[in-house]
């Protein structure tokens, strides 16, 4: 549940607060649990709701984050730095997604929940989870394509142009 909160909010302090609120809500609502689903699914839904509530409140009162590093921070080795940069790029790409697409992708692709479990946690249809994940993955593929193939000009089919006439090349037209 901590991982869901952290990946949804992308801020450890916000995630900790949301998780605390979620557990208080779960404690208060424990008598209303109907056992129609697993307890973990019920708890994850409460955590996701608490996170979404915090996101809505944050949007109403935006803040400016403090820098993560200061002048006395130690220098990290090259490989660790590269991993950190990649992590920041992926987080940035996830941040560009709408909340509707980011949350299902995090639950299905990162946390490993099934589409059915995710649909139940979010209170939406399974088809909606699938379509939101598909649209979000397509956006991520365009933004993050350079990570998979750094030397290529066109990372996603359909992004390249035909050298003969400058029109966008379709995936079936080849190279």
UniProtKB/TrEMBL annotation:
RNA polymerase sigma factor 70 region 4 type domain segment(s): 90-140
Gene3D superfamilies recorded: 1.10.1740.10, Winged helix-like DNA-binding domain superfamily/Winged helix DNA-binding domain (1.10.10.10)
InterPro entries attached to this UniProt entry: RNA_pol_sigma-70-like (IPR039425), RNA_pol_sigma-70_dom (IPR014284), RNA_pol_sigma70_r2 (IPR007627), RNA_pol_sigma70_r4_t2 (IPR013249), RNA_pol_sigma_r2 (IPR013325), RNA_pol_sigma_r3/r4-like (IPR013324), WH-like_DNA-bd_sf (IPR036388)
Segments for region (Disordered): 62-84, 148-175
Gene Ontology molecular function: DNA binding; sigma factor activity
RNA polymerase sigma-70 region domain mapped to chain residues: 2-60
Biased composition (Basic and acidic residues): 161-175
Origin: domain of life: Bacteria
One Pfam family matching this protein: Sigma70_r4_2
This protein's UniProt keywords: DNA-binding, Sigma factor, Transcription, Transcription regulation
Family recorded in the similarity comment: Belongs to the sigma-70 factor family. ECF subfamily.
Name the record gives this protein: RNA polymerase sigma-70 factor (ECF subfamily)
């Amino acid at each position: 549940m901590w991982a869901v909160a952290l990946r949804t909010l992308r801020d450890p302090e916000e995630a900790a607060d949301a998780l605390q609120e979620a557990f208080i809500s779960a404690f208060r609502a424990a008598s209303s649990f109907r056992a129609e689903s697993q307890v973990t699914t019920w708890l994850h839904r409460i955590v996701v709701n608490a996170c979404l509530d915090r996101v809505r409140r944050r949007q109403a009162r935006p803040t400016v984050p403090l820098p993560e590093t200061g002048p006395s921070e130690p220098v990290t080795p090259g490989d660790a730095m590269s991993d950190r940069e990649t992590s920041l790029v992926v987080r940035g790409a996830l941040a560009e997604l709408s909340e509707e697409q980011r949350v299902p992708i995090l639950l299905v692709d990162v946390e490993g929940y099934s589409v059915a479990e995710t649909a139940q946690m979010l209170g939406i249809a399974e088809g909606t989870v699938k379509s939101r994940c598909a649209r979000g993955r397509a956006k991520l593929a365009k933004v993050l394509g350079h990570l998979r193939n750094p030397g290529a000009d066109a990372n996603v089919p359909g992004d390249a142009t035909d050298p003969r006439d400058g029109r966008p090349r379709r995936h079936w037209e080849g190279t």
